[in-house]
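Hi F.,

I've been meaning to write this up properly since the lab meeting, where we talked about keeping a consistent format for the predictions we share between groups. The idea is simple: the sequence comes first, exactly as it goes in, then the structure tokens exactly as they come out, then a line or two of notes. No screenshots and no reformatting. I'm using this chain as the first example so we have something concrete to point to.
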Amino acid sequence: MDIQPGDILTMKKNHPCGANEMLVLRSGMDFRLRCVKCSREFMVPRSKIEKSIRSISREEKG
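Output, unedited:
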């Protein structure tokens, strides 16, 4: 999957705060994500994230 910093991931399951959108801060073997609603940051392994993504939205630069 082509996931880059700045992308917003819509997840299949909600974060405990109720939001299901996460901002990608860093990608690699692990992802650093920030919850859009409560701004909590956390690290998740790539294998777990790729299974739980519903959609990826990216703002076009230009």
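Notes:
The CA atoms of residues 30 and 48 lie 9 Å apart.
The mean pLDDT is 92.

If this format works for you, I'll send the rest the same way.

G.
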